[in-house]
Design goal:
heterodimer; A: mainly alpha; 15 helices; 2 strands; 71% helix; B: mainly alpha; two-stranded antiparallel ribbon; globular
Chain lengths: 332, 291
């Protein structure tokens, strides 16, 4: 397989100073997340932005960068959470070992779902991913001896450990936030590496024109399957973070409403941009927080705002901002 | 296990499948003609059930609910097409899908505001209460009625599409809207009518399902997944596919429920996965368009 010159995808200083700064996307994103608990009204909100940000970022690899509109990302978010909880609670695995195990198992699940769903295209793909994710939901509902069924997974505790001389204590909110942020930073670094690699260029080529990418000699089917697995792996890490954060796993996490929420977040923030998912997760969660203060029917407003975004602001908040500043088009 | 039990269960499966057929048909017709996957289809099914319930209690007769709810909700569907969907023709195929998804949130929450979150029982019309003796066993009268009504609706739909001038325009419009416009057909009006028809069928499915399932704001989400499975198996855009796959799914659910009840919700997804591995475009789908 021949690769295009990877130079165009590798971060390089552009003429404008602001542009150069934005090329340092991983460091910049970490810097923002590091001060997030002090920017937002509550710590709980900051942790949720962190978790959903990682989940949505993983999803953005599939939707924003490859152009595959999946409606089943909740399956991997949920799988990461369930596998982590089951490993800790049922098999007594320490939490830092449960996380890689859970990500690995979730990636296998993504491979299984990907093999079936990447055979289809376009709208078909959306419907198939939604249906297969619902299958995962019903399996979790039925296998209640493992998953707790309708009540969700309960009864596992995240132990306090000492790591390289640091005390890691999940009962302390600040401590917990920064441990989870380390996972998020790892995910961001990984995602950035994927996007900067020749493979990153291939998936963007598939998004722009699948037939041309195929004519160029790329194995489109295999690339789609790989990106589906990578996306599932990153989103499942968000699930692991949620399990560590809550010490329970609600069944709702697997429902297609969660997939829909992930899609909403990426559109609100802006697909195709690196930091957009975090902006989307933050705006969705803040919106939910603020509106639910004065009405229990916050979903009607979220739905309406989402419809308005699809109609008038399809690039989302962050994407539109980047466009306006004309730095989103740094690449030739 | 005796044969008559299996036959009765088969009949139950056909009744279940009949509702799926009607619901999936609305989804597939709208996609086939407009290229739009309506993610609010499940929510409109649910609203159809509520509308049927409300109209039945308002007029004192189930029959008025059955007749008026699909018409009313169908008209509402036309409003949705006119105000929202119409703006998105020519944009990415993902956009109408995303828009209707957002819309489903609004519709579900709207119903919660008006009717509350709890389920409401939908009484079976008095004429259809009880069972019919089929010689080999007793079968609920209402389910027999559902099967018969769906068969009639299918027949009328088929005759309209195949034998009338309107059907000719619709079929031609699906193949080449530009040429139809050149020939002087107002294709925008055809699309408006088709979307209304699709939504009306969702509502009809909702009213019919009412007495068989509990009516609650969440009922649409399960139905949406079911309708997706049926259209994916049958082939998106294929009317014959929706009928065959709907019955197939209904019968498999009901047969599996007989032998392994805990697998009943899962079997249709397994069926879909198998079909996709063999024929990614679905049983009656056209290759190249979607797969």
């Amino acid at each position: 397989m021949t690769h295009p010159s990877s130079g165009e995808a590798v971060a390089k200083p552009s003429s404008s100073g602001l542009g150069w700064l934005l090329e340092q996307r991983v460091l910049l994103s970490i810097a923002v997340l590091a001060v997030l608990p002090w920017l937002l009204p509550s710590q709980a909100l900051a942790v949720n932005v962190l978790i959903y940000g990682v989940v949505v970022m993983g999803y953005n690899l599939l939707f924003g960068y490859t152009g595959l509109l999946s409606f089943g990302q909740a399956a991997f978010f949920g799988a990461g959470a369930y596998f982590t909880g089951i490993a800790i609670g049922r098999y007594g695995v320490p939490w830092f070992a449960a996380v890689p195990i859970a990500v690995l198992l979730s990636t296998c699940l993504a491979a299984a779902i990907g093999i079936v769903s990447t055979r289809t295209r376009g709208i078909y793909f959306s419907m198939v991913t939604l249906a297969l994710a619902q299958l995962v939901y019903y399996v979790a509902l039925q296998a209640s001896s493992f998953t707790g069924g309708e009540n969700g997974l309960r009864g596992f505790t995240v132990d306090r450990i000492s790591l390289f001389g640091f005390q890691v204590n999940f009962l302390d909110p600040v401590n917990k936030y920064y441990v989870l942020m380390a996972f998020a930073a790892l995910a961001m670094w990984f995602q950035s590496r994927i996007l900067n690699s020749p493979f990153g260029a291939v998936i963007e080529a598939i998004r722009e024109n699948e037939q041309r990418a195929r004519a160029c000699g790329y194995d489109v089917e295999r690339s789609k399957l790989i990106v589906f697995m990578l996306s599932g792996a990153i989103s499942s890490l968000g699930g692991c973070m949620l399990a560590l954060h809550l010490s329970i796993v609600p069944l709702d996490i697997l429902h297609y409403q969660t997939s829909g929420m992930i899609v909403m977040m990426v559109l609100l923030g802006g697909a195709r941009s690196f930091f957009g998912p975090f902006v989307g997760a933050a705006s969705f969660l803040i919106l939910e927080d603020v509106i639910s203060l004065w009405t229990p029917h916050w979903q009607i407003f979220v739905g309406a705002i989402f419809v308005l975004f699809v109609l008038f602001l399809p690039k989302g908040i962050w994407g539109t901002l980047l466009d306006t500043l004309r730095i989103g088009k740094a690449r030739p | 296990m005796d044969l008559s039990l299996i036959i009765m269960q088969l009949l139950s499966g056909i009744a279940l499948g009949a509702v799926l057929v009607i619901t999936a048909l609305g989804l597939t017709i709208v996609f086939g003609m407009l290229g739009v996957v309506n993610f609010a289809h499940g929510a409109l099914f649910m609203i159809g059930a509520y509308a049927g319930l409300y109209l039945a209690s308002l007029t004192g007769s189930f029959w008025w609910g059955l007749l008026l709810a699909p018409i009313l909700i169908g008209a509402f569907g036309m409003l949705i097409e006119f105000v929202l969907i119409r703006r998105l023709y020519g944009r990415s195929i993902d956009d109408p899908l995303l828009l209707t998804f957002g819309l489903s949130y609004i519709l579900v929450e709207g119903v919660r505001i008006v009717f509350g979150s709890d389920g409401i029982p939908f009484p079976t019309p008095p004429q259809l209460i009880g069972v019919v003796d089929l010689g080999i066993g007793f079968f609920p009268r209402y389910r027999l009625f559902v099967i018969a009504l769906v068969a009639v609706v299918l027949l009328v739909l088929w005759l309209t599409l195949e034998k009338t001038r309107v059907g000719l325009i619709v079929r031609a419009g699906a193949r080449d809207p530009t040429i139809m416009q050149v020939l002087g057909v107002d294709i925008g009006r055809v699309w408006l009518a088709i979307f209304g028809l699709g939504v009306g069928l969702a509502a009809l499915g909702g009213v019919l399902a009412g007495p068989m399932r509990s009516v609650n704001p969440e009922m649409g989400s399960l139905v949406l997944a079911e309708a997706f499975v049926v259209t994916v198996i049958g082939g998106l855009g294929s009317i014959v596919g929706a009928v065959v796959a709907g019955l197939m799914v209904g019968i498999s659910i009901s047969m599996v429920a007989l032998f392994a009840p805990e697998m009943a919700t899962i079997v249709m997804f397994a069926l879909m996965a198998v079909v996709l591995l063999i024929r990614p475009q679905g049983l009656f789908g056209v290759r190249g368009r979607t797969a």
